[in-house]
Amino acid sequence: MHYELTYIISGSLPETEQPTVQKRLVDFLTKKYQAKITKELTLGRRRLTYPIKKEHSGTYLTVEFDLAPEQLKSLDQELKLDSSLLRHLIVKKQVLTPEQEAKHAASLARLKVRKAAAEAKVVRPGNSAKINLEQLDEKLEELLEHELK
Q1: Are 94 and 66 within 8 A, CB to CB?
Q2: Could you count the other beta carbons within 10 Å of the beta carbon of residue 58?
Q3: Contact criterion met (CB below 8 Å) for 88 and 62
């Protein structure tokens, strides 16, 4: 069966050690479970919506692989015990033919073009200058201090 494993590496782990964790996980899949890796994708470091194990950020990675269904439960148990992973999710995935992949890529491209065109049409009232989050926080602090006095 074809599966996709998405996992989050702890944000407290140094950037230099993340490829080591990724390689260790891929080696674990290929050597212990004889899984055939078909695709690896790094989604990047992101801020978590809520803290997981007291962590506020993590690096998201995805691996697609082929594995016997009877081995899935033991793989899941072993991933739960890995302390460098904050979370993981294994889902069964349909294998796409090259024609289906091309069709999917074309539809994503059309969607991206439509979204860009729709955003170009939107006229936003007020000042068009963008304010970054730090400036917004400073202004809010200033207003709150002014109100308290």
Answers
A1: no
A2: 23
A3: no
Quickly tell me which residue has 């200058």 as its tokens: 129
pLDDT digits (tens, 9 = 90+) for 42-55: 988 999 999 999 88
> What is the C-alpha separation between 136 and 113, in angstroms, rounded?
31
DSSP helix/strand/coil, 13: coil
pLDDT at 31: 92
Give Cβ neighbours of residue 33 (< 8 Å, ≥ 6 apart).
Answer: 67, 71, 75
Which fold does the domain 2-92 belong to in CATH? Alpha-Beta Plaits (3.30.70)
Instruction: Report how far residue 69's alpha carbon sits from residue 92's, in angstroms, rounded to the nearest whole number.
Output: 10
Please name every residue paired with 81 in a beta bridge, in sequence order, or none if there are none: none
The residue written with tokens 């006095």 in the block is 149
